[in-house]
Amino acid sequence: MPKNSKVVKRELDDEVIESVKDLLSNEDSSDDAFKKSELMVDDTEEKDVDVEEGSDVEDERPAWNSKLQYILAQVGFSVGLGNVWRFPYLCQKNGGGAYLVPYLILLLIIGIPLFFLELAVGQRIRRGSIGVWNYISPKLGGIGFASCIVCFFVALYYNVIIGWSLFYFSQSFQHPLPWDQCPLVKNASHTFVEPECEKSSATTYYWYREALNISSSLSESGGLNWKMTVCLLAAWVMVCLAMIKGIQSSGKIMYFSSLFPYVVLLCFLIRGLLLNGSVDGIRHMFTPKLEIMLDPKVWREAATQVFFALGLGFGGVIAFSSYNKRDNNCHFDAVLVSFINFFTSVLATLVVFAVLGFKANIINEKCVIQNSEKILKLLKMGNLSQDMIPHHINFSSITAEDYNLVYDIIQKVKENEFDSLGLKSCKIEDELDKAVQGTGLAFIAFTEAMTHFPASPFWSVMFFLMLVNLGLGSMFGTIEGIITPVVDTFKVRKEILTVICCLVAFFIGLIFVQRSGNYFVTMFDDYSATLPLLIVVILENIAVIRIYGIEKFMEDLKDMLGFSPSQYYYYMWKYVSPFVLLCLLVASIVQMGLSPPGYNAWIEDMAMEEFHSYPTWGMIVCISLMVLAILPVPIVFIVRRCNLIDDSSGSLASVSYKRGRIIKEPVNLEGDNTSLIHGKSPSEVPSPNFGKNIYRKQTGSPTLDTAPNGRYGIGYLMADMPDMPESDL
Question: Which sites bind Na(+) (predicted)?
């Protein structure tokens, strides 16, 4: 053999030996690095950098400036108008203080566990609702799209309510308040009170005629109400400006929009407790009617209130939590926000019933005076004998107790003729039993009570500013539930998407500021969200517990929290919550079937509401709202199932490493028992630091060779492909 050939052979042998040494020396360090990537969050995580599949650039995900800002955002989203005008109504209707018992039980059974679940998956996967469920299973990606559609439907009419509040807020800077007295109508001969107002009340007339200028039916459009159109535009401009930079802009506004309502509620509570009759209202509210607790309807309404109070299924909870660091204690957040929500509802109920007690006391005093005058007339006419009246009764300054005593005596003595006398029972409890909710509470009952406050314009300004802030806090979460998943999925600019979304929503929302717009608000409120959201949350529960795996999810939580969560959640998620949700879904469908679909129309001539059934086209709209909201779920499932589009981007894939870069290689890992959930997703696993020489491959060898540490079971592959781009991830 030629001498130079021996030299070449020796050099080749030395190089091969060196390569083997490099491989052996790096095997242990590679194993350690891989184990760390599997079991731990990477040290560089604090930079909040996510590597997107299909991109060559690392996209820095926004993060909350502080934990307080995040908590306020979640509180602002969950605490909304329903806490002020829905929860007090349900308490009054369903047994007073006794209603709190089923509410608390259901909060512990479905509220906190499901809220915790949404916080955890958002924080773990760090995507919006579309990305989260597509990551868990591409076939379930439709869950996220369904959440986005429901959010859009709710945002359409929810911002209309903010517009109504803005209108009343703008009208509160005058004394007396414009809804304090009925307007006078002048004609050629004399002046008289507006008949529609005289038959109802000043606040009722102002709401239906001055504010809404409402038509008499859903089919009678009546054209746009320009005042409400301007207010709706202002509401969407506020939302757009607050959301245009995402959490970077809305997060700062949360400090005011989330905290200001508590300041107002506390001020109202203190002021309300100083008013006559407020204690009667609070006592009436918290007097438990224990027998009502046995009614299944009470439990159904409590479950529904828990469900919607926390904003489950909307995607806003997932979107907000996706901007957290992975080691954030989301369990603490779930419990804290849930109980803040509950105590806010109780605080709002105290305020509402203190004020309604004051209002009932005023109405009761008027009732006593009017009926006392009737009794005096009956005594003068001889229809009643003076001997019936106790000697200590003085009709010029009669109290409610004395009047009721006289009323009971006359009722017993004149039993047969009593109805013809035209006397009324004046009891404060009867007035408090008149259950009002929603717009009837905020824009009529509460507004009327404030007209009797000293410095009523100030309290009116505070109240409607509070409603605006409560609405905006919920709107931020609702819009975030649309923007975040779409930006994460389709990589569009957040600013452009936010502006387009708000513009489209405003123009569609014009149907709610017609003269018949209030009826459309009722329609959307009843049919656009209830059933679709229940189905969404049931599918979320199934996706995490059955598809992803309850054991893997519990390991995820242990890795994120630093401790194992209570087994209580294991059993709630696996058994109790799905069962309760299914029962609630069935009960809601039954209730919807038994209740005739319709709305309360305002009849101008009678100055009262009258129930109308939806016309045929209205029923089609109601059904379409529910179908459109849930339609993405089966569509995405069928598309993925039939492989109509490539679903590799959402599946778990093996990874190949080349000089510290990740090369994606789709592999079916359904049978793999090794959890990827301990640390980062495959696209985020840091590459071990290998030596320069990895393998010597012979000509014709396969492109990919399984490395010795492939025993970890996730397709951990080495690559030596000099002509391939370093990474597509």
Answer: 76, 79, 83, 341, 470, 474
**pLDDT confidence band for 672 (50 / 70 / 90):** very low
Domains of the chain: 67-363+435-620 (1.10.4160), 371-433 (no CATH)
Q: How far apart are CA 124 and CA 541, in angstroms?
A: 16
Spatial separation of the C-alpha atoms in residues 19 and 10, rounded to whole Å = 14
Average pLDDT over residues 154-171: 94
Residues with Cβ < 8 Å from 698, sequence gap 6 or more?
none
Place of tokens 């997703």: 681
Distances (CA, A) of 591 to 91, 584, 588: 20, 10, 5
State whether residue 545 is helix, strand or coil. helix
* Residue matched to tokens 């309510």: 161
Report the pLDDT value the prediction gives residue 15, as an integer from 0 to 100.
52
> β-strand 653-658 against 717-719: which pairing, if any?
parallel
CB 678 within 8 A of CB 42: no
571 pLDDT higher than 90: yes
Neighbour tally for 458: CB within 10 Å: 15
CA distance 711 to 706: 9
Q: Which helix (H) or strand (E) holds 439?
A: helix 438-440
User: Would you say 422 is a known binding-site residue?
Assistant: no
Residue 165 to residue 442: CA distance in whole angstroms: 9
Q: Is 613 annotated as a binding residue?
A: no
Residue 19 has pLDDT above 50, yes or no: no
Q: Residue 38: which H helix or E strand, with range? A: helix 3-39
Position 97 pLDDT exceeds 60: yes
What DSSP string describes 128-154?
Answer: -HHHHHHHH-GGGTHHHHHHHHHHHHH
Which comes out higher in pLDDT, residue 14 or 709?
A: 14
Q: Does 196 have pLDDT greater than 90?
A: no
- Dihedral Cα 494, 499, 505, 510, nearest 10 deg: 170
Q: Distance (Å, rounded) from C-alpha 103 to C-alpha 94?
A: 11
- Asked if 257 contacts 472 with a C-beta cutoff of 8 angstroms, the reply is yes
What pLDDT band is residue 594 in, cutting at 50, 70 and 90? confident
Judged by DSSP in three states, 598 sits in strand
Between CA 720 and CA 358 the distance in angstroms is 81
Indicate the Cα dihedral angle 3, 9, 14, 18, nearest 10°: 160
How far CA 700 is from CA of 20, 697, 715, in Å, comes to 21, 8, 22
Q: Is the pLDDT of residue 694 over 50?
A: no
**Given this model, what pLDDT does residue 435 score?**
62
* More confident of the two residues 569 and 421: 569
Buried b / exposed e along 416-431 (16+ C-beta atoms within 10 A)? eeeeebebeebbbeeb
Angstrom distance (rounded) from CA 478 to CA 480: 5
Give residue 173's identity as a one-letter amino acid code: F
| Cβ neighbours of residue 402 closer than 8 Å, sequence gap 6 or more | 392, 393
Residue 643: phi, psi to the nearest 5? 55, 40
The answer to the question of whether 474 is labelled as a binding residue is: yes
Q: Is 83 annotated as a binding residue?
A: yes
117 known ligand binder:
no
Distance separating alpha carbons of residues 636 and 144, to the nearest angstrom: 10
**Residue 76, annotated as binding a ligand:** yes
Distance between CA atoms of 76 and 512, rounded to whole angstroms? 24
Average pLDDT value for residue range 341-365: 88
